[in-house]
Amino acid sequence: MKPIAIEEIVKRLYLDNPWWRGREEIIPYRTSRDYLSPLEELVVKQEPRRAVVLMGPRRVGKTVMIHHLIERLIQTGGVPARNILYASLDTPVYTGMPLDKFVQVQQIASPDSNETLYFFFDEIQYLRAWEAQLKSLVDTYPNTKFIASGSAAAALRMKSTESGAGRFTDFLLPPLTFAEFLKFREVEDELIEEVAPCTYTSTDIGRLNEHFVDYINYGGYPETVFSEEIRKDPARFIKGDILDKVLLKDLPSLYGIRDVQELNRLFTTLAYNTGEGVSMGGLTQSSGVNKETVRRYLDYMEAAFLIKRIRRIDKSGKHFQRDRQFKVYLTNPSIRTALFGPITGDHEDMGHLTETAILAQWFHNQYLANNINYARWKGGEVDFVGQIYSSPNMQWAIEVKWSDRPYTHPDTVKGIIDFARTSNLEGMPRITTRTKAGRRTIKGMLVEYIPSSLYCYTMGKNITKGVVSF
User: Do residues 354 and 400 make contact, with C-beta atoms less than 8 angstroms apart?
Assistant: First the structure.
């Protein structure tokens, strides 16, 4: 069998890299993710010398963001177009082609370049032992930038962690934040006003809430915002093109799962009960899957960015020695509505889905996301509690509600006040509502109220700015 000729490879690369021919790249949608600037900062940094591994769930716009970044490097970054090579490794002509061969081809195209070269390897999971090859390139070519991405999130995360220590920097692209959703819909400027740095208000909370419900129903994926056809049946897109590929293909092939229906059954149970407190025994009983298998499946689904587990603490802010109970959230509320149908703003499940949407805003910052807990004790509970700086006490606490009753009837607010006092909470406790905002003193403690949709916007907006605020 004759090998694929180098001429065929070069011909395909010219097709994949139209900027080599002086043409503008055609990007499926012009609006860029808010994570583009943070990614650019990471890619152009000279030190430390590392490859960037762009990872995240399926269909959140990783490939499009790569092309936006290439466009920005050429148009505003002053990078010569021929110094950038993009290749999607699922292209047949590249099958089995080692990464260093792309470097050799690029050196032929730009033989006299003493400037930094940029290599973008998309769908890198299709190349066997990619992590070892990428690590070798980082060591061999110190003045060259390497960016890898792929759709099999669990595989990328595992290989990057195992083999890329000191050579790879992971960059997580989560589903759309609520702020990005509004920007993509071109209503952000109409509905949001920045009244102080990183502090926002809404000019029309009723309309903002309508968009928030839409965001919960289908707003996590860029294609659902731009395609009217997909919005007519988002369940088909999300389940068929995203969930089934992860649950029936990615995870079974990576971890050797034989009973995919068992995995699917457990995930369906978790999706329906997003935001509920669970135990290993309870999950075993409700899903029909044995405890050890449940434990492994939870690890797999979290590695694939499908779910997020958060730990329980007590009333004083201390962790339990044994985590008998924990909460499981979907990483995107649209997954639940894809499986069980869209909801309205008055649906009984809006409470848990609002929690799910708010938690989803924090996922890009893995340190922050991994230090979110919930508090539960006999007679009380607080939805989200965090400790992000070195301190003996918890620093923030939020009770999430899709109702104005906690504002109009402050006497019903007990759990978060008790927790704040007992745990010596450092920050002001916050309660989200449906429409009400303001501050009130309850039992001698100042409490801040903010509409859930506005709070969700604020968290998502600030996290992309690198600002941690609660």
Answer: yes
Q: Which residue has the tokens 């600030």?
A: 462
Q: Which domain range does residue 220 map to?
A: 178-464
The secondary structure of 192-234 as a DSSP string is EEEEETTEEEES-HHHHHHHHHHHHHHTTSHHHHH-HHHHHSH
The neighbouring-strand residues paired with 51 are 168
Beta strands in 362-405 (DSSP E): 372-377, 380-386, 396-399
Cα–Cα distances in angstroms (integers) from residue 366 to residues 314, 327, 363, 388, 465, in the given order: 23, 17, 6, 11, 15
- Looking at the fold, whether 355 and 459 belong to one and the same domain comes out as yes
Instruction: Specify the 3-state DSSP secondary structure of 289.
Output: coil
**Residues sharing a CB contact under 8 Å with residue 159, sequence separation 6 or more, in sequence order:** 130, 131
Judgement on whether residues 385 and 426 belong to the same structural domain of the protein: yes
Query: Is there a domain that residue 469 lies in?
Result: no
Tens-digit pLDDT profile for residues 182-236 = 999 999 999 999 999 999 999 999 999 999 999 999 999 999 888 888 888 888 8
The pair of three-digit structure tokens given for residue 197, joined into one six-digit string:
């740095």
The number of residues in the chain equals: 470
Same domain, 108 and 153: yes
326-352: per-residue pLDDT in tens?
999 999 999 999 999 999 999 999 999
AA identity, residue 178: F
**Angle in degrees, 0-180, between the axes of helices 333-340 and 205-218, rounded to the nearest 10:** 70
For 48, which DSSP code? Answer: S
Q: Per the structure, how many domains does the chain have?
A: 2
Specify which residues 52 forms β-bridges with: 147, 169
